[in-house]
Design goal:
Elements (H helix, E strand, L loop, with lengths): L1 E8 L5 E7 L8 H23 L7 E6 L5 E7 L5 E8 L3 E12 L2 E8 L2 E6 L3 E2 L10 E3 L4 E4 L7 E5 L3 E3 L2
Antiparallel strand pairs: 1-2, 3-6, 3-9, 4-5, 6-7, 7-8, 10-13, 11-12
Length: about 170
């Protein structure tokens, strides 16, 4: 029971006996360890499932409205699932597009977008990734010849637009 005995001699000549006890080694019960690890794993899995259940992984992408006209029509979806025209926005407006969420009505595909904290639908062909691609016109007719200046502050001429048809990129 005792590991060893120590004799201590004090200054006043008294001898003191100190007995040191052995430390008992604790054995790890593998069943208790297994149960503890199992319960911890179940709690973690349940927490992940319950907390992550309400959150959808949303794939949003910044896009720009494009059109051959100066405005793009936005639609809203009513309770029956039909799309109604809601309002017009100027082409080149930055919106958030939901990548994988589109609706097909009358053989046309409409993509779900988020603009001004509201959900709208827009024709899928009216979304582009670059703001410079917002103009979908391919040809433009210049009725009157125009002089194009480099900037509005001085009179340095950039080019002349003659009366003709101009093909845009």
């Amino acid at each position: 029971m005792y590991k060893y005995v120590i004799l201590i001699l004090r200054e006043n000549g008294v001898i003191k006996w100190v007995k040191k006890r052995r430390r008992k080694k604790r054995r790890v019960n593998p069943v208790k360890v297994g149960i503890t690890i199992g319960i911890s794993a179940i709690i973690v899995v349940l927490a992940v499932l319950l907390l992550g259940k309400g959150k959808d992984i949303i794939n949003k992408e910044a896009m720009y409205l494009a059109s051959s006209d100066k405005v793009v029509k936005l639609y809203i979806q009513d309770d029956d699932g039909n799309l109604k025209e809601d309002k017009d926005l100027v082409r080149g407006t930055k919106v958030s597009s939901y990548k994988d969420r589109s609706v097909t009505k009358d053989n046309k595909s409409y993509t779900k977008i988020d603009y001004d904290k509201s959900i709208y639908y827009v024709d899928s062909g009216s979304l582009v990734k670059d703001a410079k691609s917002a103009v979908l016109e391919k040809v433009k007719y210049v009725r009157t010849s125009v002089t194009v200046y480099q900037n509005s502050e001085d009179s340095k001429i950039e080019s002349f637009l003659l009366r003709r048809v101009i093909k845009l990129m």
